[in-house]
Amino acid sequence: MESDKTIFGRQAVIEAIEASKTITKVFIQRDLDKNRAERLIRTLENSKIPFSYVPIQKLNKLTPHNHQGVVAQLSEITFHSLEDLVETHQNNVLFVLLDGITDTRNMGAIIRSAAAAKATAVVIPTSGSAQITGETIKTSAGGVFQIPICRVSHLKDALYLLQSYDIQSIAADEKAEQSLFDIDLTSSVAIVMGAEDKGVSQGVRKLCSHAAKLPILGKMDSYNVSVAAGMFLYEAMRQRLKS
Hints:
37% helix, single chain, four-stranded mixed sheet, alpha/beta, Alpha/beta knot, 10 strands, CATH 3.30.1330.30
């Protein structure tokens, strides 16, 4: 069974996945019998759809119906294939990779800036990240419908793919030695933004071609991540318009 934004019931969720519906996340009752959920979990893992185990109270809040211990959230957008986009757009691409951005409003604001800068796509991981919710769509001012959104299992895989196409990657890092303004952003590039509290994760940072910081003149430690992303995108756009 399903409503506008949710599907509930084990078989209904499996059928939705097999019908290629775009699902953001699946919630499974924490104490659900594993044998009864075995096929569902196998289907989720094969389809690389994120899922988590939650108390039954969470599921009861998501739907008043008999959910049988499983509720899936439908995505309001269609996700794009990163590989297809890379192969289609060969010249001067501009990707934005989001590493651990868990605040939906920050994500929406970044997508809005990426759409305004006419970036090629925004890339998010399936887990450890905010997903595209109604609040994300609202904060993006409709930007989610103007720019492709790609969802990947791991950002490391995305970086390896971009490297194979000679696309350099730049990690936003307030402790970096190099200023963003000293990096050439006119060629194909991927900007990697990290979580506000931790920044870009160490494993992802090691795979990036460069790290760059934004100058801070006042007595502040850092910028809000969505503001910083806007400045990175603006600098890329400024250089490209000038060249």
